[in-house]
Amino acid sequence: MSFLKEFKEFAVKGNLVDMAIGVVMGAAFGKVVSAFIDGMFMPLVGLVTSGQDFSSLVFQLKPEIKDAAGVVTQAGVAIKYGTFITVAIEFTLVAFVMFMVIKGMNALKKQEPAPAPPAPPAPSNEEVLLSEIRDLLKKQQAK
To answer: Which residue among 22, 43, 71, 75 sits deepest, i.e. has the most Cβ atoms within 10 Å of its Cβ?
Structure first.
């Protein structure tokens, strides 16, 4: 029974839930960035590079072999460096956006006023009584 109780406490801790939300949001953010890269950014890069589609760039190590009917009988071997370039650009953009988000969050944290220092604790009853006795003794000595 204690195992289930321990598991329940672990599962509902705020840190675990926050981490799960972060993973889900990260996956969704990754899809948005991929769509942006594939649909908007890479076509612009292709336009600048005379219509070159980076995702189709390959270095052919071994060509595919086809029979007389045109059916591939042996697959070719190629290094797909264009896909790597696309993913590297995507990673750079994600890293930049995350940097900007964290920089913005840190700026907001700096703008929050620092909490006021706690007021010193009130003197205890014994201290108050001792202060009164001290003051009375001073008055007696002054006379």
So the answer is: 43
The torsion region of residue 50 among left (phi > 0), alpha (psi -120 to 50) and beta comes to: left
Q: Within a 10 A sphere around the Cβ of 42, how many other Cβ atoms?
A: 20
Cα 89 from Cα 83, distance rounded (Å): 10
pLDDT in tens, the chain (143 residues): 688 888 777 777 767 777 788 888 888 888 887 788 778 877 787 788 777 777 778 888 888 888 888 888 888 888 988 888 888 887 888 788 778 888 888 888 777 677 778 888 888 888 888 898 898 888 888 87
CATH number of 2-115: 1.10.1200.120
Let me know: does 91 contact 83? Beta carbons within 8 Å: no
The model carries a pTM of: 0.50
